[in-house]
Amino acid sequence: MVSGPINCVKYLVFIFNLIFFLFGITLVAVGAYVQTQLSAYLDFLSTNINGPAILLIIVGLIIFLVSFFGCCGAVKENYCMVLTFSILMMVLLVCQIGGAIAGFVYSNDIKQLVTTQMKKSMVNYDDPEKGGVTKTWDTVQTKWHCCGTDNPDDWTTAQPDKFDKAYPKSCCDDQIETCDSSSSTLNKQGCVSSVEDIFEKNVYYIGAVGIALAVIQVMGIVFSCCLARAVRKEYEV
């Protein structure tokens, strides 16, 4: 059994694993929150836009398993379990760094991606087989007091036969039947900026949680490696 300063490291490793466990719960909660926020917009955006949220949930669940090895290894002073914990934490850390880099690069393309997907979806508005698109567009335009992707004329470009003289009712605040350019309640601002803000805000949430977790992971790896070394020396004596 390890003793002295290393015994303190043993309990620190155990405490860190409890923190990892709590962070696992946090990651799942944040991932679920982001997924919920994005779900309303998946009907007219690319379905893989919610990838980061799903990744957070998966990582959070993996941390539960990793924490098990860490806690048991620290309490039982089991070299293999502590070493397994250290290796798994290193792998997770490398994956997080890779994901962070990809997320940073990806965030610069959010506006272009969102704009492209929104304009593509406008073609499917009022299509009986694409009911989710119609419902989502109406919800977005009503909630954010906007119309079209960049401006109301996007509807005419997307469906010239249907929206040549009028726009969807949800483009006007009073939801009148004939919502056209002469309507006083017509919202002339496009919706892309509002939707873009939602995605950028969620990216910041993910980044903040990821950075905090990475700092704790590094400390946990250092302490667990020290404990594993001490346990191994104890066995060799």
In short:
The protein is mostly helical and 237 residues long. The protein has helices spanning 5-39, 51-76, 79-107, 110-121, 131-144, 153-158, 192-236.
Using brief descriptors, characterize the structure shown.
single chain; mainly alpha; 7 helices; 237 residues
Description:
With 237 residues, the chain is mainly alpha-helical. The model has no long low-confidence stretch (mean pLDDT 79). The protein contains 7 helices and no strands. The longest helix is centred in the C-terminal third of the chain and has 45 residues, at 192-236. The termini are close together. α4 packs across α7.
SSE layout:
Blueprint (H helix, E strand, L loop, with lengths): L4 H35 L11 H26 L2 H29 L2 H12 L9 H14 L8 H6 L33 H45 L1
Basic shape:
rod-shaped
| Percent of residues in helices | over 70%
Report Rg. Answer: 25 Å
- Let me know the number of strands: 0
Contiguous low-pLDDT stretches (5 residues minimum) are: none
For the record, give the distance between the C-alpha atoms at the N and C termini, rounded to a whole number.
Answer: 11 Å
Instruction: Output the structural class.
Output: mainly alpha
Strand % is under 5%
Order of helices and strands: HHHHHHH
Largest sheet: none
Q: How many helix segments?
A: 7
Mean model confidence by pLDDT: 79
